[in-house]
Amino acid sequence: MIKPPVEIVERLKKLKETIELHRYNYHVLDKVTISEEALDSLKAELLKIEEQYPQLVTPDSPSQRVGGTPLPEFVKVKHKVTQWSFNDAFSEEDIVEFDKRVRRFIKTETGKDEKPAYDVELKIDGLKIVLEYEKGILIRAATRGDGEFGEEVTKNVRTIESVPLKIKKPTDVIVEGEVWMGEKNLKELNRKRQKAGEAVFANPRNAAAGSIRQLDPKIAAERKLDNFIYDLSASSEQLPPTQIEELKYLGELGFKVNKNFELCRTVEEVIAYWKKWQKKTKSEDYWIDGVVVKINERKYQEALGYTGKAPRWGIAFKFPAEQVTTIIEDIILQVGRTGVVTPVAVLRPVSVAGSVVSRATLHNEDEIKRLDVRIGDTIILQKAGDVIPDVVSVVKEMRPDGSKTYEFPKIVAECGGDGKIERIPGESAWRCVAKDSAIQHRRRLYHFAGKHCFDIEGLGPKIIDLLLDNKLINSAPDIFDLKKGDLLALPRFAEKSADNLLQSVEKAREVTLPRFIFALSIPQVGEETSIDLAKHFGSLENLMKADKEGFEKISGIGPVVGQAVTDWFGNKTNLKLVAELFKRVKIAKLSPLEKSNARLSGKTFVLTGGLLSMERDEAKTKIRALGGEVSESVSKKTSYVVAGENAGSKLDKAKKLGVEVLSEDNFLRLIK
User: Fold this and answer.
1) Active site residue 259
2) What is the DSSP code (8-state) at residue 65?
3) How sure is the predictor about 26, in pLDDT bands with cuts at 50, 70 and 90?
4) How many CB atoms lie within 10 A of CB 142?
5) Domain 323-414 class?
6) Inter-residue contact 43 to 34 (CB < 8 Å)
7) 3-state secondary structure at position 238
C-alpha cells in the first residue's frame, strides 16, 4: 500500500473540515455559504484521494454518508406552425414576477382574479425538432432553425428508435420535442473518436446537434440518439384542455414523454420543483439546464397569447451557472499587444460546463485584492459568457498555512529593456514602461492579421513567428511584400500552401476603415471604439488631424481615448507605419446606411454568452447593417442584452438596471 505524502494528508484533513462546515451550515442552520456545485466538487476531490489512498478513509469522512453505485445537402423547409421560444427567468425573484404578470393579464382579459396552475417540465439540453404526421405516419422532421424555416432532417430522425414512425391513431399531428444524447453514449462515442484521431464532442448537446446534421443517416444511426416529445402544436383532433392532459395524450399516441413533469398550484411549488431538480440533474443520463413553466389551462394560454417573440404563458426557469472548485497553482503575468500586463491564474485542470479549464484571467490588481486570491488557494470557478472561466471566490477555509498575499512584481521580463512595469494613472491595470518589447511586437502582428482586423487567412501566430524568426518580415507592411520564393524556403510551405497564403494577403489589401483603425493597436481603442471613430471622422486623414477636444463630442468616447489617439498619431514611428501601409493597402469607402434597412437605428446591443446559430462577429455585423450599435458594457442606455449560453456578469447587470434581455431565438426574430 502506497504511503500518502504529507501534503496529501493535510489536504484531505482540510477537505473534511471544509465539507463538514458547509454541510452543517446548510442542513442544520439552513444557511447557504457555498454553492451546491462547488461543495460537490470538493466532495469529488475527497473521494478521489480516498480511492487512491484507501487507508486514509475514516468513519467520520463525508464520503461515508452515502454508499456508492448521405444527403447532398439539407433542404430548408417552412414550418406550418411558427416555432416560438420562451423568455428566460434566472432567479426566484424572476419567476415570482412572471407569476404576478400572468395573474394581472388574466384579470385584465377575463375580469376574474384567478390563480392559474402551472405544468412544470424539465428543460432538456439538446436539439429541438418538429415532427409532422399525416394519418398517423411520420412524413417530415425538421430542426427549429429561425422559427419560420428549419432544415429537413427526416432521414436522420427516422434512425432514432424512440421516435415512432407510425403513431397509435391515424390522425394528423405536428409535435415538438428535443433530441438528445446520453452521457454514457457520449463517453463511448468520444472514446472511439479519440482512438481514430478525431476531435471529441465537448458535451451531449453538441454531439446531438452534430449527429442530426450528418448528411449520412448511417452516422446518425450509429450515434444512438434519443428524444422526448413535449408539445402538441397542431392536430386534426381537438386539443386537450390542459398541458398535463396534452402530455398524457402524447404518451397515448406512442411518443416518448419525459415522466418528470409536475402540476404546481402555486409559484412556491414551482420554485420547490426547480430547487429539487438542481440537486437531481446528475441522476439522469440526459443534460438538464433548467425547467420550463407553462400555464396548465389552455384557455388561459389562448387568452395571454404571444408577444412578438415569445409566449406570455410560459417561461424557461434556468439553473444557476455550473461551478466547480480547483486550486491556483501559480499566478503569471501576460504582456498584451499594447503593453498592458494581465495576471492569469494557472489552475489545476478541471472540467466545468463540458470543457477542461487550466487557466483563468484575474483581470487586474484590484480584482486580485478584492478576491484576496493567493497561490495555493482553492477557488470556486464558473463559466462566464463565451465560456471564459471566471473566478467567483476563494474557499478560505482551504487556504494553506503560511500563504502570502500576492504582490505585483516590479519587473516583468517579457516587457523588454529593464523589464519595469507601472500602474496606469487612474486605472487598475499595469503596463510595461518600454513600449516596444519583442513580445508586444509579435502580439501586435498577431492582432493585425487576425479576423477582427485584416483577416489574413492562414497567417496565424505560428506562421508569423516563423516569418519573424527567419527575418522575412519585421513590421506589418512587410506582410504585403512577401514573395513565393521567400515562403518556399521555409519549413511547412509547399507550392499550394504558399499560393494560398499569398492569395489571402492579396485579398486583404482592401480593408474597411474600422478594421484598419483597430489593426493599429492604439491604446484604449477597441473594436467598438474603432467603429465609432470611423463613423464620426469618415476617413483616416480626418482622424489623424483631430485634436483631443474633438473626440469629446463623440458619444461614448471621452478624454482618455482622445488623448491616447492624439498621442499615438503624434509619434513619428507610428506615422511612418501608417504611411508604409498606405503604399500597400486601400481603405474601402464607407457606404452610407440605407434608411430602409435602419430598423434598429438608435438601439444599442450588448452580447453576452455563446450563440449557437452564428459567430458573435456575424451577430454584430447584422446589428450594424440594420442601423444598430454594439457596445461591450451594459448601462442604462443599453436597449437590449442578447444572452446566449453561459451568459455572465453582463446579464446580471442588465437585470439590475432593468434592461430588456433577449434570448438567442428572440434576437434572431428581431433581426430577421
Assistant:
1) no
2) G
3) low
4) 25
5) mainly beta
6) no
7) coil
433, with CB counted inside 10 A (0-12, 13-18, 19+), is: middle
User: Residues 224-241: pLDDT tens digits?
Assistant: 889 999 999 999 999 999
Check: CB of residue 562 under 8 Å from CB of residue 554: no
Question: What are the extents of the domains in the chain?
Answer: 6-65, 80-318, 323-414, 438-587, 595-671
Distance (Å, rounded) from C-alpha 541 to C-alpha 554?
Answer: 17
Assigned CATH topology for domain 6-65: Helix Hairpins (1.10.287)
More confident residue, 367 or 590: 367
Which of the 8 DSSP states describes residue 239?
P
438-587: CATH topology:
DNA polymerase; domain 1 (1.10.150)
**Average pLDDT in the 578-605 region?**
78
| Angle in degrees, 0-180, between the axes of helices 267-280 and 92-110, rounded to the nearest 10 | 150
Report the alpha-carbon distance of residue 216 to residue 667 in Å, rounded. Answer: 31
Q: Which residue type sits at 385?
A: G
Give the position of cell 507610428.
Answer: 574
Averaged over 380-409, what is the pLDDT?
A: 83
CA-angle at 215, arms to 211 and 219, nearest 5°: 50
Instruction: Please give the backbone phi and psi of residue 658, each rounded to the nearest 5 degrees, phi first.
Output: 75, 25
| Amino acid letter for position 373 | V
Q: Which residues, 6+ apart, have CB-to-CB distance to 416 below 8 Å?
A: 432, 434, 436, 437, 438, 439, 440
Three-state DSSP state, 167: coil
User: Of these residues, 14, 43, 123, 650, which one is catalytic?
Assistant: 123
For the domain spanning 80-318, the CATH number is 3.30.470.30
pLDDT single digits (tens) 607-647:
987 777 787 878 888 898 888 888 888 888 899 999 886 67
Q: Which three cell numbers stand for residue 346?
A: 494557472
**E strand spans, 506-570:** 510-511
Is 29:37 a contact under the CB 8 Å cutoff?
Answer: no
Contacts of 596 (CB under 8 A, 6+ apart): none
**Nearest by Cα to 270 from 300, 304, 307, 315:** 315
Alpha helices in 358-490 (DSSP H): 365-371, 438-449, 461-469, 484-488
Reading the block at residue 600, the C-alpha cell is: 434598429
For the segment 399-409, the average pLDDT, to the nearest whole number, is 91
Does 3.40.50.10190 match the CATH number of domain 595-671?
yes
Does the pLDDT at position 69 exceed 60? no
CA distances from 478 to 161, 444, 461, 553, 609 (A): 59, 14, 16, 36, 37
Q: How far apart are CA 27 and CA 480, in angstroms?
A: 66
Q: Take residue 584 and report the three cell numbers written for it.
A: 500597400
